[in-house]
Design goal:
The chain has helices spanning 11-23, 37-40, 60-70, 85-93, 106-129, 158-168, 177-184, 190-206; strands at 3-7, 27-31, 48-52, 76-80, 98-101, 133-135, 138-141, 146-148, 153-155, 174-176, 213-218, 222-227. The protein has 229 residues and is an alpha/beta fold. It folds into two domains: 3-125, Response regulator (Rossmann fold), CATH 3.40.50.2300; 131-227, Arc Repressor Mutant, subunit A. Strand 1 (3-7), helix 1 (11-23) and strand 2 form a beta-alpha-beta unit. Helix 6 (158-168) packs across helix 8 (190-206). 29% of the residues are buried.
């Protein structure tokens, strides 16, 4: 039985979601106060978090950062009434792996929870196949979320790690943009596409110390992770 940590301060919504997820076979813990979330991890190890942004005492962004610092691979679905793109980007930068705007349907929430759990299992299987990889003058440690350059160790975010991991499996081969979006985010929406651009730029910056490494944009197709010998 998969464990869901559901963090929501609206009593009526919290009750409906809590009861519905239980009926769907999930083991659900509901917490209404942001300040009480991290201590819950001492006794509960959830498989996924469903997290409201607007919470008393500690907001969802801060909580997500704290959760990801301790459990980097744990999926976090943000629930938000905010509609600005900047707010959604902030959620992903905090470590969120998916988001839903309020009001939402329970059917969609259940689909997204299952999708995140399936993606996590797939990524764990992929990570086990690549324990350490030399990329030019760099070393990539997937299990530690680290990229070691000639001068420093770069701690990768969840998304940076996921994008790089797919790139590494196709060195000197083209990587389809749509495939990247579907594998990492579960869909190829315009917003996710723009977010992918941000992470590609970050990876280019990380590899700047080795001129033999280049992430080439293949217009209308995807990317080529080029590593020259």
């Amino acid at each position: 039985m998969k464990k869901v940590l559901y963090i929501e301060d609206e009593p009526f919504l919290g009750k409906i979601v809590h009861e519905t997820l239980i009926k769907q076979g999930f083991d659900v813990t509901l917490i209404a106060d942001g300040a009480k979330v991290m201590q819950a991890f001492n006794t509960l190890m959830p498989d996924i978090c469903v997290l409201d942004i607007m919470l008393p005492n500690v907001d969802g962004y801060t909580l997500c950062e704290q959760i990801k610092n301790r459990f980097p691979t744990l999926p976090v679905i943000f629930l938000t009434a905010k509609t600005e793109t900047a707010d959604l980007v902030k959620g992903f930068e905090a470590g969120g792996t998916d988001y839903m705007r309020k009001p939402f349907s329970m059917e969609e929430l259940i689909v997204r929870i299952n999708n995140q759990l399936n993606l996590l299992n797939s990524k764990r299987n992929s990570a086990e196949k690549v324990l350490e990889k030399e990329i030019g003058r760099y070393k990539y440690h997937p299990m530690r979320y680290e990229l070691v350059s000639p001068s420093k160790t770069i701690r990768l975010s969840q998304r940076e790690h996921e994008v790089l991991q797919l790139m590494v499996t196709s060195i000197n081969k083209s990587v389809d943009r749509k495939e990247l979006l579907q594998t990492i985010w579960g869909d190829d929406s315009f917003f996710n596409s723009r977010t992918l651009d941000v992470y590609i730029r970050k990876l280019r910056e990380y590899f700047a110390e080795d001129t033999s490494i280049e992430i080439v944009t293949l217009k209308g197709k995807g990317y080529l992770f080029l590593v020259r010998n």
